[in-house]
Amino acid sequence: MKVPMKQRQSTIALFEGGRRRHDSRVTSRMAQSDDAVLLLRGSIVRSATPSVRTLLGWEPELCLDRSLTELFGTETYELLDELQTAAEQAGGHFATLHALPMENVDGERIWIDATIGDLRHDPEVGATVFTLHDVTDRVKLEHSIGLHDHHDPLTATPNQRMFELLLTQSIQSNEPVGVIIANVTHPDEISTDEAIVRMARRLEESLRAGDHVGRLNDGSFGLVIHRLDLENPDADMAEVALRITVSLHSIRSFVEIGSSHSCDRKVTAAQLMVEARNQATEA
Which range, of 11-15, 45-49, 136-140, 266-270, averages the lowest pLDDT? Predict the structure, then answer.
């Protein structure tokens, strides 16, 4: 199956931290994950989860012993090869290609966040882990409501209205979702616009596949965190908050963070945001 690649607008983002807990859960969560997961030796698929069938329409067993070039086509493979190199250079961390356009077996256009982690030296995995997270609904939502009217003109991240829509959509999923509100300040000698754009880029680089960052009406940043650990969501949220803090401190910015999370589909986006904002104010 060939995958059309008409644009190369996806960005490679590295994120660090929390690798050990993620690594130890890979094998146990692969089979039950909604994401399609491939285990690779080099560029050859040695294992595929059942979700490959749901996402792409492929039978998992037919993916085995095939190369990424065969499965995705040359142009997409070149991007994935760059992604794999980035993960290897990051010393076992993960690299993500956001909103990669593809076609499933029926020729329908879909968008995915593609994440590659170099876990060849992990005794529990011993392979490169390639995860495909479906973000088609998010991309279609963004297009349907208009990017210009729903994105912050300075940072090009979702504005508050778009952020709340994305959060509401995430709440309706079957997985716990978290919200982080980050109140950020910066040295006076850095121009305000320059600092805000740099902050937005650092926050985007800190995201995991499928997460979102937006600039809210009061100038703070909001982050939607997906797929929290069902057994210990607080630890997941703490890891993300620490990663954000370290990333922003590296550009001499100071941050106050508040967070909240829920797996209750009845909770509203406004409720989660108020709880997180109150924590940020008290920090």
Answer: 11-15
Q: Token pair for residue 217?
A: 């009406």
The values of phi and psi at residue 152, to 5°, are -65, 125
Instruction: Look at 34-38, 190-194, 232-236, 252-256 and tell me which has the smallest mean pLDDT.
Output: 190-194
> Could you report the per-residue pLDDT of 74-122, keeping only the tens digit for each?
877 887 888 777 777 766 567 788 888 888 888 888 989 888 888 888 8
Residue 10: predicted pLDDT: 39
Q: Give the 3-state DSSP-derived string for the chain, with helices as H, strands as E and coil as C.
A: CCCCCCCCCCCEEEECCCHHHHHHHHHHHHCCCCCEEEEEECCEEEEECCHHHHHHCCCHHHHCCCEHHHHHCHHHHHHHHHHHHHHHHCCCCEEEEEEEEEECCCCCEEEEEEEEEEECCCCCCCEEEEEEEECHHHHHHHHHHCCHHHECCCCCCECHHHHHHHHHHHHCCCCCEEEEEEEEECCCCCCHHHHHHHHHHHHHHHCCCCCEEEECCCCCEEEEECCCCCCCHHHHHHHHHHHHHHHHHCCCCEEEEEEEEECCCCCCHHHHHHHHHHHHHHC
Side chain identity at residue 52, one-letter code: V
Burial of 90 (0-12, 13-18, 19+ CB in 10 A): middle
230 — phi, psi (to 5°)?
A: -60, -35
Quick check: 1 and 105 in contact, CB under 8 A? yes
Summarize pLDDT for 170-208 with one digit per residue, the tens: 888 777 899 999 887 766 555 577 778 888 888 888 787
